[in-house]
């Protein structure tokens, strides 16, 4: 039975799932080539950022992976400025490590997004230099924080326009909304005093809870400081990528009740490429295939809601924890703790050198090669499907021609390792295609859609036997897709 839709994203009630599963099969078209990646320099603007975090703690080595950055097609990169790495001795700053990073990413056509965090234990009450480490709280530490932020701003004025204040403060119960709000205002005002045009990103929330956001906005409203915020960045790791959106929508509605200029952005989300015992999305049998699917579903799900989006992160991070607390004091751990966070697009070795580019690296390239500022989302794209499963479907049109691209994927479960597909029929009432092709975003392969499998009558299009699975595929106007001749890219 056909189901009719007038919305870009609805979950379909499952009917006859067992029959649906039995019908899964490999469906192949004639391949006509592969997507041509575009470098960051070749793309004017897009929705896409990449994570370059944790270099403040040396969990990755920029010199090892910098050659792969521009080729991703990302337009922004999130970096952590690292107070404790910059100021190892009171009042003395070393910015050389950060200088070379910022200068190089700009040279590759990527805009730096610089986060001020974390604490600095050389000051009493200065906090710890790690996630959940706590804000600077003493008079001396806060004064030193102000001086460090001012030094950062003076140094990178003209090179850095996007500034994010702290990371996931809500993971530490001592970092109350009021405490964060006070730190945010003093920091944002220092930044704005030297860079009036700066874009300020706030909160960087791990848990997407309205109470924390409401308290922050209340504080700013009472202090007449709402103008300091441009974007509230949200994280919110979920095994099924689409599961987080109801919480995002609540935050959006809350923000709109305070301000008409503040937007939300997805500021840090990624997926492991193997089963790991630590960090977000742990204890699940992830593979490099399911990582690629998760990446595409999350980023295209964000795009389908007009949410700026970041993939965390470019390379696996080798975490080394050498400091801890004992009786409330910072101490050196006798046995450092070594773990690996495998969310990277690049597989790293234990010494932070590059092992190889994962399939997710190429999937990210596929995404950036097509979806840039020249494509505009078509709100409430109308479609009809004949399915017993739950799908995400979004329509886009090209500024230059009005030709269309439609993204489709099964969204009911956490991405799996399987690449089996099932055929389905789609009807688009307001389509616009001349030569439609099929694109598997995970592999980058582009296929002919046989003329026997699609019909057109005015703007009404019917596509039959379209292979779909739990990873995004496209029905796209061929003229909007650039192909390459190289057939050697690994799947």
TrEMBL record:
Enzyme class label: hydrolase
Keyword Cytoplasm assigned: no
E.C. number(s) listed in UniProt: 3.2.1.23
Domain Glycosyl hydrolases family 39 N-terminal catalytic per the UniProt entry, residue ranges: 90-239
Domain of life: Bacteria
ATP-binding found in the keyword field: no
Keywords in alphabetical order: Glycosidase, Hydrolase
Any one GO molecular-function label of the UniProt entry: beta-galactosidase activity
Pfam families (UniProt xref): Glyco_hydro_39
Family: Belongs to the glycosyl hydrolase 39 family.
Name of the protein in question: Beta-galactosidase
Organism: Euzebyella saccharophila
């Amino acid at each position: 039975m056909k189901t009719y839709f007038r919305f870009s994203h609805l979950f379909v009630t499952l009917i006859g799932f067992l029959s649906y599963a039995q019908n899964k099969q490999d469906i192949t078209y004639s391949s006509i080539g592969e997507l041509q990646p575009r470098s960051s320099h070749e793309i004017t603007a897009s929705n896409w950022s990449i994570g370059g975090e944790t270099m403040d703690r040396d969990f990755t080595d920029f010199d090892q992976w910098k050659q792969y950055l521009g080729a991703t097609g990302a337009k922004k990169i999130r970096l952590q400025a690292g107070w404790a790495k910059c100021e190892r001795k009171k009042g003395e700053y070393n910015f050389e490590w950060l200088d070379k990073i910022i200068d190089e990413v700009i040279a590759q056509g990527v805009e730096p997004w610089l986060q001020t965090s974390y604490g600095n234990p050389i000051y009493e009450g200065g906090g710890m230099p790690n996630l959940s480490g706590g804000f600077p709280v003493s008079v001396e530490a806060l004064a030193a924080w102000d001086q460090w932020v001012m030094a950062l701003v003076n140094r990178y004025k003209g090179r850095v326009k996007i500034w994010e204040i702290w990371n996931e403060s809500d993971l530490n119960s001592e970092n109350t909304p009021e405490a964060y709000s006070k730190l945010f205002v003093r920091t944002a005002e220092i930044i704005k005093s030297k860079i009036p045009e700066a874009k300020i990103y706030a909160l960087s929330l791990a848990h997407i809870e309205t109470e924390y956001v409401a308290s922050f906005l209340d504080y700013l409203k009472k202090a007449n400081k709402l103008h300091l915020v441009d974007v509230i960045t949200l994280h919110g790791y979920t095994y099924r990528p689409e599961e987080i959106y109801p919480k995002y929508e609540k935050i959006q509605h809350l923000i709109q009740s305070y301000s008409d200029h503040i937007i939300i952005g997805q500021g840090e989300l990624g997926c492991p490429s193997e089963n790991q015992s630590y960090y977000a999305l742990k204890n699940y049998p992830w593979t490099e295939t399911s990582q690629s699917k998760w990446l595409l579903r999350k980023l295209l799900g964000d795009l389908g809601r007009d949410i700026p989006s970041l993939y965390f992160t470019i390379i696996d991070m080798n975490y080394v924890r050498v400091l801890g607390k004992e009786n409330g004091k910072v101490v050196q751990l006798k046995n450092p703790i070594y773990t690996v966070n495998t969310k990277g697009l690049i597989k790293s070795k234990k010494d932070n050198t590059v092992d190889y580019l994962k399939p997710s690296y190429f999937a990210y390239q596929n995404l950036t090669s097509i979806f840039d500022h020249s494509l505009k989302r078509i709100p409430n794209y109308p479609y009809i499907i004949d399915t017993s499963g739950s799908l995400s479907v979004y329509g886009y049109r090209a500024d230059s021609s009005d030709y269309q691209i439609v993204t489709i994927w099964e969204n009911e479960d956490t991405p799996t390792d399987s690449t089996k597909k099932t055929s389905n029929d789609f009807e688009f009432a307001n389509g616009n295609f001349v030569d439609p092709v099929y694109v598997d975003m995970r592999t980058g392969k582009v296929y002919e859609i046989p003329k026997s499998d699609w019909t057109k009558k005015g703007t009404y299009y019917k596509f039959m036997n379209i292979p779909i699975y739990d990873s995004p595929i496209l029905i796209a106007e061929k003229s909007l897709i650039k192909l390459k001749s190289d057939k050697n890219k690994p799947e």
